[in-house]
Amino acid sequence: MTNNNTMQNMKKSIAGLILVCLTGIASAQSFKVETVKGHFEFPAAEGSDEFYENLDKDVELIDAAATHPKTANDPKMWYYRGLTYLTIYLQGTEVQRSKHPNSLNIATEALYKCIDTDVKKKYTEKAEAGLLNCAIGHYNNGVAQYKNAEYTEAIESYKKVLKIIPLDKDGNLKRNNIVKETLIQYSSYAAVSNEDYATAKKYLNELIDMNFMDPNIYIEMVRIYLIEKDTNTALEYVTKGRDMFETNTTLIDVELDLYLKMGRSKELIDKLNAAIERDAENKIYYFARAVSNMKLENLQAAEDDYKKVIELDPGFADAYYNLGVVYVDRCKPIAKKIDESRDFKEQNRLATEIDGWYKKAAIQFEEAMAVGSYADAEKLELAQTMKKLYGRLMQNDASYKAKYEDMKALIATLE
């Protein structure tokens, strides 16, 4: 009887010892998380040796807690794991970043796990704030990867940001110009550069469905379908683009090129003629027909249509600019005649004729500069064109010297 009692007491003692040990192990894991927490709540001076030493300790402690079954589903642990690796990515030394090259991805995954396991929502808000910082990191990575021609990696980085975007309730990412539309656009650029046309079309179609206002979406779609030798679908997209951006000269050029490739250039002009008959006051139809005639080298018809556009809308800057280009283009056959002529008087007469067209072109470019709301890059290009014209004209007409100097000064401010 005594022996039985002794055995039972021993079993109880062992069971109690096991329970104490298990409790001690669990407490040890919690202590590790609390230690990491303490380093963030009462941090050492940033940049100090202690700061970086604590960061190394935090990695060791939080990694151990992440793999232990007692803390593997603890939202607090996942939050501080995310914070630890995000700190390495943002503030770690070169050695620490090199040792943990995947720190941003680890941080992102940990913060998602914090949200997933946080039934009581004690850490969710802070984890979401951490993910916004991760989004900025992934965005910067994507931009760098694109520049380095790492297109697949760039798309993956942008995907990570897109996943986080819905958490941006206060518009913090938006204030950093990180928005869904831009990310999809950049992803499409990367896919096109990677010649992954299926993915590119997916992203470009998303932008079209979102009514994203950029004519290049349609231009890229046309280019892709032409690469795939699907001219009919290419024409469908250029038509959609023209409906959205009626005055975009690149889309008009692309449309005409398609009609030319399909042997249907007359059909396009006929369509514009019919449109003008229906609505003789619509400047867009005249502008499109003018651009088309320029492409077909019907310069007189183009000139007449641009003049009509200006008559209908004196503030239409592109019409002035293109009319100036028509006048410059008028000089090409004259310059050819000068090269072919051996008659000095004839050469002088033809050179004077060119100056006449250049003077007319200069007037149109001046009007375009006066009424146009150009971005600096566009204004610089126009100013450089005008400077060349004035440089030519002032050789025989000193009055253009002042205009030449004005353009030279303007260019200096824009370069």
Describe the secondary structure blueprint for this structure.
Blueprint lengths: L1 H40 L7 H19 L7 H17 L2 H6 L3 H15 L6 H24 L3 H14 L7 H4 L4 H14 L3 H13 L6 H12 L3 H14 L4 H13 L3 H14 L4 H13 L3 H14 L4 H13 L1 H10 L3 H28 L4 H18 L6 H15 L1
Helix pairs in contact: 1-2, 1-3, 2-3, 3-5, 3-6, 5-6, 6-7, 7-9, 9-10, 10-11, 11-12, 12-13, 13-14, 13-15, 14-15, 15-16, 16-17, 17-19, 18-19, 19-20, 20-21
Describe this protein's structure.
The longest helix has 40 residues, at 2-41. It is elongated and about 100 Å long. It has a domain at 314-415. Helices cover 80% and strands 0% of the residues. Residues 9-26 have low confidence and may be disordered. The protein has helices at 2-41, 49-67, 75-91, 94-99, 103-117, 124-147, 151-164, 172-175, 180-193, 197-209, 216-227, 231-244, 249-261, 265-278, 283-295, 299-312, 317-329, 331-340, 344-371, 376-393, 400-414. The chain is built from 21 helices and no strands.
Descriptive key words:
415 residues; mainly alpha; 21 helices; 80% helix
What sort of overall outline do the alpha carbons produce when their principal axes are compared?
elongated
The overall average pLDDT, rounded, is: 91
**Which parts are unreliable, with pLDDT below 50 for 5 consecutive residues or more?**
9-26
Termini separation (Å)? 103 Å
Q: Provide the β-strand percentage band.
A: under 5%
Tally of alpha and pi helices: 21
N-to-C order of helices and strands:
HHHHHHHHHHHHHHHHHHHHH
User: Main beta sheet: strand number and arrangement?
Assistant: none
What proportion of the residues is helical, as a percent range?
over 70%
* Integer-rounded radius of gyration: 34 Å
Q: What is the number of strand segments? A: 0
Helix/strand structural class: mainly alpha
